[in-house]
Protein 1
Amino acid sequence: MTQTSGYYQATAHPAPRRPALRGALACDVCVIGAGYTGLLAALELAERGFRVAVVEAHRVGWGASGRNGGQIVTGYSTDMSRVRRLTGADDARLLWRMAEEAKTIVADRIARHAIDCDLRWGYLFAAAKPRHLAGLAEMAEEWARDYGYGRATPLDRAGLAAELGGGAYFGGLKDEGGGHLHPLNYALGLARAAEAAGVTLFEDSAALAVDTDAATLRTAQGEVRANHLILCGNAHVGRLVPAAARRILPVATQMIATAPLGAERARRLIPSGAAVSDTNHIIDYFRLSADGRLLFGGGASYWSDGAGDPARAIGKRMRRVFPELADVAIEHAWTGHVAITANRMPWFGRVGRRLWFAHGYSGHGVLLTAIAGRLLAEAVAGTEERFDVYARIPHAPFPGGRARAPLLALAMAWYRLLDLL
Ligand SMILES: Cc1cc2nc3c(=O)[nH]c(=O)nc-3n(C[C@H](O)[C@H](O)[C@H](O)COP(=O)(O)OP(=O)(O)OC[C@H]3O[C@@H](n4cnc5c(N)ncnc54)[C@H](O)[C@@H]3O)c2cc1C
């Protein structure tokens, strides 16, 4: 996988290099992984008076948190009617409310810690086929009727055209409660805030072995003894704690950034400045950056590490939506890994009494990590009630056992075909 997120790295605020862990360290809580989940959990715990250390295998924001589309998407990666079938109506309402609380956490953190990450509100779901319009309207109706959410409005083709240029879509849904931000600068700002609250961060410090009963871990040059461990490795968690990894699957996805388009051309592409995703099975998602580039992502690979040539593959998808960008150079291209679950709901849980985890946001982690961080902190501090609403969501393993990657690749090819029809 490419080591950096290209465009985000090039526009990141300066950040100090944190030392690697050397020798023995004792603390109340040790967090594994310095993406949003780990940083937000650490910050919430430090504010509650815990002594917290974070060990990160690479650098702060190296994983999905430093490479993603930056899109804050309302709700979950699966629709609320499915959530309700999975969990029952009462838990579905709690889950909706907590996803909304996550928006407040993101906005509060950015304001409170003065995190300069280009936060902007406004979201569009764009119908890739005429028949998808009814589904979007039903979704808005369900959000309003069952969850009291009044910020999503269906748009016909002309209504969408006022918000989004290109003409590739048949209408859509405008959601004032979604938005976008610069993902790496958000992560770097959270790290700064965590350190200010007393958290100790170690980079280049992969946890190589974990004892979940003793709440200890070992890195190449150090070891940690804690009262609790929180595992926040998401798609990169590997086999460190197999019991916490078997219901997630890492999926490679790719992004590109064009050359700056100039204010006028950028405005013509997305007059509203909203973040956008389409309604295909294999979604395209895009938005303008603060410096007027189009950032475009899409595709999903269960089979390869996604190395390929993102500039070519994603560039083609981008030009299908915006043919007028045929002459525009693609200046950055990168790959990252999302952790998905079979039902596309996040997977929270614990292994024994002392190791906690939250991951598998299935492409909605910019928002949902905020509630994950809070609930991990609540649970470690002794109040598990809200954490358990997530922990009791039923998750099945991926079908196919060892053959699951080829099977999912086949399923993906089928979905690609459906999108073309
Ligand atoms: C290309 C791409 C586009 C995306 N777009 C969106 C989007 O637009 N909107 C959205 O909501 N979500 C999106 N996502 C998903 C979102 O980025 C993630 O859900 C979110 O960042 C997860 O945060 P995290 O902290 O749980 O994991 P990560 O950010 O992946 O962090 C995990 C960290 O753990 C570290 N780690 C792993 N194992 C160890 C170990 N043994 N020891 C120490 N450290 C370890 C890793 O190095 C990594 O830094 C996208 C993801 C990708 C890759």
Protein 2
Amino acid sequence: MPRSYIIRHAEPLDARGYITLIKDILSETPRVDTPYAPDEFNPSFERIRDRIMEVRATDNSLFLVAEAEHEVVGALTCGGGTLHADRHMTALGVYVARDWRDCGIGGALLAEAVRWAKASPVVERVELEVYARNARAIHLYEKHGFEHEGRKRRLYYQDGEPMDMLIMSLLLEKKRG
Ligand SMILES: CC(C)(COP(=O)(O)OP(=O)(O)OC[C@H]1O[C@@H](n2cnc3c(N)ncnc32)[C@H](O)[C@@H]1OP(=O)(O)O)[C@@H](O)C(=O)NCCC(=O)NCCS
């Protein structure tokens, strides 16, 4: 039977669940494909709570969570550009708790983000970076319309190994006023 979850905009009180989710993911063994070491993600509850409120008041940023069994089991963030020159750009990141992977949550979060970006009057470019070896994430991004733009070679070291990152983006045509 499919496991049930909901996708929704983050509320300020989700800050604690979000921090726990990301800390748990960064502490996994073997490590997930992200450059952050576990001790490099230490935001306060207040900082994430304030970010969630800030995102709700902007039109080029997004903070979604997946909730299941009263816990935050996935999150997707889009951080919009803050300059006049890049207000049309938003940078995407997505994480799903280990026990909930391959249940469709990452895909559902991405589908919702793409729907939001298409409906947004300002967002014309959604971009992301992904480890070149992260086949599952790349598959999902391609499935949701993201195209390959380039490769940053040997950008990060992970467990002593140099890692390439792929740059991917989704471009959306919008009428400019
Ligand atoms: C990447 C991630 C967000 C995907 O979320 P998810 O909930 O597991 O994804 P879904 O269940 O919606 O979909 C997984 C898809 O990948 C496919 N897949 C699984 N393993 C795969 C592999 N090794 N190679 C290619 N595709 C794979 C599944 O078949 C499924 O495809 P489908 O929808 O066409 O059937 C999640 O696995 C995760 O958080 N990983 C750790 C952190 C991470 O890598 N984040 C991305 C950083 S850029």
Protein 3
Amino acid sequence: MSAQVACLADDVAVAAALRVELYAADGGLVEVAVVRDEDGELHAISDICSHGQVSLSDGEIEGCTVECWLHGSRFDLRTGKPLSPPAVRPVPVYPLTVDGEQVLVDVDAPL
Ligand code: FES
């Protein structure tokens, strides 16, 4: 499966995140956080924190990072790498493109 519509660009405010569910080519459900950073750029990152099973879209956006609300690990929205403990594993980041009003995400080709 290739890129699919995740949401509309206007659905995601600056420094906010929207949780969406997309289907991978194998039929599995992928939970994605579509995040607009403080500079207005959109990113698609796994919605599931690599430290626990909680939703990153409920976290706080600062700069180009999202902070997990449960234990405070901060993840880089471009790379998915944790910038602070306790998380040590990155979370997947997915290619995102904007086509007119539509935000397209490819969950089968993590960056
Ligand atoms: S669950 Fe996210 S940092 Fe612990």
